[in-house]
Amino acid sequence: MTKNILLILLLISKFCVIAQNKERLFEDSFILLNSMIENESNYSFKKAVFSVENAYLDGSLDTLTVNKQIKLLNNLSKSLIKDRFLAYVERDKETVNKWASVFEVMHDTIPININGKIYTYKPFGYDFNDIFGHNTHENLFVSKLLKTHKGNCHSLPYLYKILAEELGVEANLALAPNHIYIKHRSIKYGWYNTELTSGIFPIDAWIMASGFVHIDAITNGVYMKALNNKESIALVLIDLADNYNVKFPNNDGTFILRCCETAIKAYPNFATALILRAETHSTQIEKIQDKEKRDSEFKSLEKEYAHIHEIGYRNMPEDMYFNWLISLKEERSKYENKKMNTFNKN
Fold first, then answer.
1. Percent helix, percent strand, percent coil in the chain, to nearest 5
2. Cα angle vertex 80, ends 79, 81, to 5°?
């Protein structure tokens, strides 16, 4: 009997150590992301994204392979910049050319000559299966995108931003309902949108056509705002919190709220962070036994949700999002920015 008890205690102890090590990876990722927000010199979107994915994967992310894949894509981008003529003559041509090369790597089939033999590079495509990662959370990951060349509105713009920054140029993430895309600003065209799920440059009217973008959401930077680097790291912080919730569904909310508060500090009107904070508070309140305290906390929670509504956020059902996304392909001529001939090769 004593031996059995000792064995059980050892197994419990071992399990606790493993769990603590897994949680430690999330804590390490949080520390890294927080340092990027507090000190711009620490910023690296690539490191931020893969630290979050590595934490979810219990430290098993093959970073050597991932970095090798990104280096290959970076070299391909550089070769495109070197070998082609871009029909763009403004003084920011070098920057625009880099954006064009990343876009081409993401969306074009490219013949590659290696020692006289022609190989075909296949671009990244949209994966219509489990687009929100409900069944397999890794479907949202850039590492999965690199492995399969299939991604979604989360991993595709993330990879685009990583590749652009590897070339030394900025790429601003932007938000729409349930969606992430890219915004660039050139001398000739001003701000314009780059949509990675369909490979076109849609006008802002496409975003408005979703029916879930309130004018207050635009005014307050909830949607259609070109996010700076700190705000982009805020997005990754909420990825970290979501991953933690999936990995540890019975957590007490403490880590989630740390991620939310840090993200909101960097991006005050980040609706996803505000909603996750409110939902976490709601879960915590349900466990409060004291009725008076619980009622008081509910009043605070009501103020949180009221604020989210006031800044213009409106919930978009997933099926409506999917139909809206499909409409961009089906009505391409309606929403495509006709002025964007920058990426046409001569």
1. 60, 10, 30
2. 90
CA gap 5, 96 in Å, rounded? 67
HSE of 286, CA atoms in CB hemisphere, 13 A:
8
Structure tokens at 279: 């939902």
Which two three-digit tokens encode residue 325? 């996304």
Distance CA 52, CA 238 (A): 10
Q: Which amino acid, 35?
A: S
Query: pLDDT tens-digit profile of 250-269?
Result: 999 999 999 999 999 999 99
| Whether the model pTM is above 0.85 | yes
- Residue 81, token pair as written in the block: 């910049």
Determine the average pLDDT of the residues in 101-111.
Answer: 93
Q: Where are the domains of the chain?
A: 2-335
d(CA 178, CA 158): 15
CB atoms closer than 10 angstroms to residue 11? 10
- Give the DSSP H or E segment for 235: helix 229-247
